[in-house]
Amino acid sequence: MNYKSYLFLLTLRVLGLLLALTLLAFGIAWFNTYAIIGGAIISIIAVYNLYRFVIKRFVEVDDFFESVKYRDFSRWFVETKGPQDIRELHQGFNLVNKTIKAIDSERQAQFVYLQKILEMVNIGIIAYNVESGDVLWSNDSFLKTLDFPSFKNISFIEKRRPKIYDELFETYHSNTASVTLELRQETLKVLISDTVFELEDHSFKLIVLQNIEETLNRNESEAWKKLLSVMTHEIMNSIAPITSLAETLQHNIQHSLDQSQPNTLDLEDINAGLNSIKRRSEGLMKFAKTYRSLNKVTHVNKTKIKISDLFGSILELMKPSLEDKEVSLIFELNDPNLTFEIDAYLIEQVLINLILNAIDATEKIANPKILISANISHKGTGQIKVMDNGSGIPAEIMDSIFVPFFSTKKTGSGIGLSLCKQIMLLHGGKIQLQSSETEGTTVSLLF
Hints:
Helices cover about 55% and strands about 20% of the residues. It is an alpha+beta fold. The protein folds into four domains: about 5-105, no CATH class; about 120-210, Beta-Lactamase; about 235-295; about 305-445, Heat Shock Protein 90 (2-Layer Sandwich). Strand 1 (about 125-130) and strand 2 (about 135-140) form a beta hairpin. The protein starts with a helix and ends with a strand. The model has no long low-confidence stretch (mean pLDDT about 80).
């Protein structure tokens, strides 16, 4: 609305009323009958006109507010009839309605987009009123995961599946939790999390449900396929030469038996062949034990141990491996009384694995060095570091270093670092790796 036009018209009517009242006052003061009658009539007309002028605008505003109250933004106010200020007022109303309709359309579009996205995700979602149990919204994935038909109130589940109802709607999961739900003919493993939020004086609960049964089964199947592929390959590599050599020895012995002349066997060849079979068999046994070690590490037995004793034990164990190598193994410990609460046996296994890797990495380096240190960081975290000046790890394989069965060595099984990571996780810690192809590698064990 153009307030200047409205103010101008209002001022004219107020001035007209003042003039009429002035004329009426003049007639009364001078006892002029014509002035009294004329002033009275003009005053009445001016008051009526001013009243109509003001009331008409208030009625228009009240009419607009009434439409807002009932959210009727489809109404169109006439812009081509009536006084100029009324037309401008209608233009303002129409502009507000148009803007609100545009905002509402945009919000509806966003809601539809969001709804379609949530329908497409493979995660069950439901929101409901905590007081009444009325379902605000749920997607098809939620119904499909739990094999439910569409329902409007959670009391539907309470009557038919009380155990699922207690787990989903009565139990509060502040953090994402893994639970097993009992369905009609099977059990289902899911991840569940929920939160409560306020909306227009009502409390709502949002539950997110993810079926991890299929994911676990798929990952397990892929892991088994990978494991069987690797084991089959390794076992065949060991069995093939054993079989070939055994056939050769059997052929020689059979040939000797068929000959009439005695002592035609070459005992040295037979002995060498049997030694080869023995070495290959031992390698196959070692391979099987290596894979079995992954299943053995399921818990830790922590005890307080001095790091100086741990380092001394490592040095004794590594002496035979270092005798024929020119690698400097250095232990650095600023506090000889430094104590960690760890499983010494498992951490020894981790450190030996890391040292052997470091030895391989420094094989072609001049003046190879391996430094092992331990301290307490300023954050109070116990840490052991294994640093070498070797060839480092290429950036393109850094993300695969801890993946089981991944190895860059021709003779590696690919489970060493994976086993180290599992041991650190069982300790409630973690293993971090920093490497440069020019400066070497640093592996940090954080407890």
